[in-house]
């Protein structure tokens, strides 16, 4: 397969360090969240960065499906909640809940659209059978 785009970022210091993209646009300090024993205040963390990327990517996939199917909606939003969980073997894993708001459609249409977006989104395809991803929709204006 041919890469359409490649992003690169370098982390120094792990969860209590710095992350910088190869083009310098992203250059941010990361810290362990308070709930994991870190200072957390005023800093982001890997789970927030993953949530931001997944939400943006999924919203794009959702809008692609909406456009392809020529459905009239309002502006969509996607919220990704990324949880760090401890596994039974003592390791760690992620779990995700994606909530899409798709105004001006029925709940049934919204559920169909989010399922189709889940098949198209690169993050969803990357996490398929790797992490638990729950989908939910709202249809508020």
From TrEMBL:
Pfam families: OsmC
Gene3D superfamilies per record: 2.20.25.10, 3.30.300.20
One example of a Gene Ontology biological process annotation: response to oxidative stress
Family (UniProt): Belongs to the OsmC/Ohr family.
Protein name: Organic hydroperoxide resistance protein
Species this protein is from: Flavobacterium kingsejongi
